[in-house]
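User: Structure tokens for this complex, please. No commentary.
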Amino acid sequence: MATLAVLHGQDDSEQTRHSPAALGSGFALAAQGLRKRYGDGAEALCGVDFAVREGEIYGLLGPNGAGKSTAVQILTTLLLPTDGSAQVFGRDIVRDQDAVRRSIGVALQETGVDPLLTGSEALELQGRLYGATRRAARERAHELSGMLQLEDFAHRRIANYSGGMRRRLDLALGLVHRPRLLFLDEPTTGLDPLSRNALWDLVRTVRSESGTTVFLTTQYLEEADTLCDRIAILRAGTVVAEDTPSRLKRRMRRDVIELEPEDPAQLATLLRLVRRSQPSATLEREAVRVHVSHGATIAQELLAAAAGAGIALGGLRVAPPTLDDVFLELTREDGVTDAGEEA
Amino acid sequence: MLRFLEELWLLTGRSLKVTLREPWAVIPNIGISLFFLFVYNAGLSGIGQLPAFGGVPYLAFILPVALVSGSVGGAGAAGQALIRDLESRYFTKLRLTPVSRTALVMAPMLSGMIQLVAQTVLILLVALALGLKLPGGLLAAVGVVVLAAGWGLGFAGYAVGTALRSRSGRTAQAATFIFFPLLFLSDTFVPLTLIKAGWMRVAAHVNPTTYVFDAMRSLLAHGLVAAPLLRGLAAIVALAVVTLGFAVYTAQRTLRDA
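Assistant:
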């Protein structure tokens, strides 16, 4: 803890004084029974619990509408929870908003930057709003422009920035005051693969250089997989699983095979045939679906079997599990069948 | 407190900076005020000969109309600045900082006030160039600027409150149409004694703008005279208490859970 306080400078000495108990617990962020019901009665979060350890990159994974954004907005003090509580380094997110705001950096989808400002102006203002002197704010702005490769555009108006540049600026704005906990809301949604990889590297750098804890939301399994130490999977406002990516993946079999007979009438026959070698096969809409560890090999066997039985196939898909597959897999464990899946 | 003032100054400075980068959002408002001044003075100055004007030149009589219309426009700019930040969602980014919530809402108002004061001074200078005499001297001119700023502040509370409540540029824009009855249901062009329609006289008595016009006119024509000045200030305080109360109430509600 002492080393962290040194790395983060003066802001933390104050935190250390005020919340020794929380620092002792080693959690950067913790939530207990977090609920959010909107005015129209819709329940976005139905009692969410999790705990993020200091220095960890923690991912909240879920499809659109799962409640990720609501969770982040509550944790960053933008929204009030209907029920439940959460603490950032031991400080309550409702009662102690100022202390929470000081210790977190945020890059949210729900925020923007004044398009008439230049990047360096926005960074400098941000620094000064956190109490830095003009000179310190200017130096920090310069430093971050370099780190996020924004130098060439630092003196151009933000209105002229590309999507990737805005995302990097947003990250820079979140890092201005050297926060101990960084929130990233779908940081790579809409980015091209190159910018996405660059952003992942940046997040790793931030963590390794300053020990910053990172809490991110994503709808991409791959992102959670490569970047996060631990993942919570959020579905319809509830955490359905929380573990390390590797353990979660072990819980789901590797690949998904889907076979679709040309004649829908043969669906039942095809299912019976597949179940002879793959008893876990299920029927999903117009196709037989099975999760296996070696997709390509099993697919070959199944194709041969289908040809042998005289079933003409109209479609075949062999793929690593998508987020939807993960969900199907997880909800099946709960004994619930979910018909909603990707188109 | 010092920290609050620093935050307010930083946010106001930002607001002014971006306003200057988009001057076309402000120029029409100044244009309209100067247009009022030129056109009404040129077209109506003859009626200043009427005894009801008590020898006050028509330029001094109509100048407050240009000033008040300018100050209302400047105050509307405060609402528009806030709407811009709400729409670009920069406002949400600012809400994530530990900055005082009061400073967040006051900064666009203060920036609107600064624009308004600059604008009022400009219009006064144009009036002087047109031949305005100021028997009350610099003190009277300062008094007029203070009245315009106070009236603008009252209107800024209204503009910011509706901006926060509606979060839409169009609704906030529509809400500024209250400006028309406020400006014109009053002794706008002639003294009350010359207004014959009974309903109009009632409206003018109820309309707080009337007292602001009268206070400005008295300053311009006679310098510091207590009674009209105090009535004008009272009207301003009454309006400001209501509209700033509305703005603070709306801000507290929307900033708590938006």
